[in-house]
Specification:
single chain, mainly alpha
Length: about 80
């Protein structure tokens, strides 16, 4: 008997186990329809967060400018 026939024989002897049935929930929770008021509140929140990010970005840019100036001064001192 060759190796391939032995493998086929072993594979053929395996018993296939039946698959368990999936249980699908009968009731799907209903989502609240988005009201205009909810959408306005969400948009307001997003705009507020964007404004906060803009201010943080400006603050970081100012700090970066200060650091760049300090590095230029340090370089001048180091080369003199």
């Amino acid at each position: 008997m060759g190796i391939i026939s032995k493998i086929k024989e072993k594979l053929g002897k395996k018993k296939e186990e039946p698959l368990e049935e999936l249980q699908i929930p009968e009731e799907v929770p209903k989502l609240e329809p988005a009201t205009l008021e909810n959408m306005k509140a969400k948009m307001d929140l997003i705009l507020t967060q964007m404004e906060s990010l803009r201010i943080q970005n400006e603050t970081l840019n100012e700090r970066l400018k200060i650091i760049e100036k300090l590095l230029v001064e340090i370089k001048k001192l180091a080369t003199s």
